[in-house]
Amino acid sequence: MNESLQESKEFEFEIDDAGLILELFGQFDENIKLIEEALGVTIISRDRRVKISGNNEGIKSAHKVIGRLMKLAEKGGKITPQSVGYAISLIGPSGQDIDEKSNDYYDIIFTTAKGKKIETRTMGQKEYAHSIRDNHITFAIGPAGTGKTYIAVALAVLAFKSKAVERIVLTRPAVEAGEKLGFLPGDLQEKINPYLRPLYDALYDFIGPDSCRKYLDRGIIEIAPLAYMRGRTLDNSFIILDEAQNTTSEQMKMFLTRLGIGSKAVITGDVTQVDLPKDKVSGVVEAQKILKGIKGIEFVELTHRDVVRHRVVEKIIEAYSRYEGK
Predict the structure, then answer these.
(1) pTM, entire model
(2) At 117, which helix (H) or strand (E)?
(3) Which of the four pLDDT bands, split at 50, 70 and 90, describes residue 175?
(4) Which of 172, 130, 165, 166 shows the shortest CA–CA distance to 151?
(5) Between 20 and 30 A from 95 (CA), which of 161, 277, 291, 302?
């Protein structure tokens, strides 16, 4: 991208690759409209030239956002409304980077057998993936849609395929928003399966339903409610405790002490969505106070900025945070 930004109401620059311009603008110019709306500028393209009009700060910010998106595309990442929103969120009011490290958030962490790339899309996600690689136990705490479970399962499958571990164990507490297991139809396993469904979905995405069933039948992959972990020692395993905000203090201690030789654990949770009885303390909340500072254990906090679902999800999370803050 060739440019020489001036203190003026308009700024033009050239993008050498016409295909990148098409990707930048998006279908029906949806990506550019997001930048225009957020930064109060007008952006038009003619041939390979892009012109930004507006006030000086808006022009600087828009130019910075476009530059970041071009780098993302050049690395092989896709420019989506979510990535545009994230790029905008990293620009301060005067067009400066909020965090210089945030320029390098894109990282491919896994490629499926079908060639699908699983990548980090925010700096928080990249730090989370690195923490899992570098530590025995990683706690990922953050709102829905930040990729906590998805990234953990991707790295579990990667560790298994590279023979770093021999088994994958996925578990969740069978506690959900005010619902009781006894009211669900079927036997115990049929009652529990709906709570474990997100874990099955993630595995299917990475290794396919047929391979997943084969590994489940052979016990190489295990998906079970947290209560089934009691009394066990899990060696050479990659263990994921999902929805951990709904563990009690006793359950969290029980889970953490299952870790055996050659094993790694990831605990994910959203402390704003605890469904335990009012008199019960969340095991994740307590663990933050007890375990911080222990070598080999790291707490990664994700925020609304790391949400990679539909952009409206980020706005919903922000709105609830404001409301609950009052």
Answers:
(1) 0.80
(2) strand 117-120
(3) low
(4) 130
(5) 302
